[in-house]
Amino acid sequence: MAISAQDITSQSDLLFEKANSAYRNGFYEEALNNYRQIDSFGLQSADLYYNLGNTCYKLNQIAPSIYYYEKALLVNPHHTDVKHNLIFAQRMTIDAFEVLPKSVFQKINEKIIYPISYNTWALISVIIALLLSTFFLLYHFSRYTNTKRLFFSLGFINIALFLISLSFSIKAKHYSTHNQPAIIFNSKVSVKSEPNNTASEAFELHEGTKILVLENMDDWSRIKLVDGKVGWLLNDTFKKLK
After folding, report:
1. Rounded distance, CA 235 to CA 193, Å?
2. Which residues, including other chains, have CB under 8 Å from residue 201's CB and lie 6 or more apart?
């Protein structure tokens, strides 16, 4: 018999209380098992991922702790406690890379466009389109020249805003579909120059390092680092964040 959404919520709340209690009392393995059981229900919660990250960190499981902190930030990019703890977890990793300088447009994308879902941008576009229709009607039925000029100007402004919001929605959709961040889970992995075991090693990575998956080919994935390096990794050496 299928479990109802209400039953899942009730069971999750009970498990969450048990996990929190176990964590406060230092029973981290028990807390982790309960948190992961909640996660198995498919519920996306920044607080749940945050607690999972904290518990894994207490158990010295660096890669899983970073993984769950990153998951929490995908749900809530503004979670201050998660950002703070993620920094501590990242200090436990071996790999360090120099981030490539970002252009003004890349900064705008990361700070303004990408944090807002493409569905939200699409909704904003619809609202602007409705305002545009309203201004057109007001312009059409207005009897006074100054009023017509006002609604005409507002209409043109809304056209520009509509095109901008629509382009933001398309850009956010493309980013959501093609941006596949992941975390290395193996203690040490060899990144190959080609997708096969006999290829030469391009460089090494260690657990907890964040990568970007660019494409897949059978058991391999082409990955990219923040410093621009690219190579091929076996799929079972990392775990995607989404």
Report:
1. 15
2. 190, 191, 192, 193
Q: Residue 113 has what DSSP assignment? A: I
Q: What's the pTM value of the predicted model, to 2 decimals? A: 0.81
- pLDDT, tens only, 12-47: 999 999 999 999 999 999 999 999 999 999 888 999
Residues 6+ apart with CB under 8 A from 158: 128, 131, 132, 135
Helix or strand holding residue 51 (H, E)? helix 46-58
Q: Are residues 55 and 71 in contact, defined by beta-carbon separation less than 8 angstroms?
A: no
d(CA 164, CA 227): 30
- Residues 6 or more apart whose CB falls under 8 angstroms from that of 85 comprise 50, 53, 54, 57, 69
Q: Could you tell me if 203 and 227 are in contact, meaning their C-beta atoms sit under 8 angstroms apart?
A: no
Which of 132-144 are b and which e, b meaning 16 or more Cβ less than 10 Å from the residue's Cβ?
Answer: beebeebbeeeee
Interacting residues of 35 by C-beta distance below 8 A, sequence separation 6+: 15, 16, 19, 48, 51, 52, 55
Query: 112: buried, middle or exposed (CB in 10 Å: 19+, 13-18, 0-12)?
Result: exposed
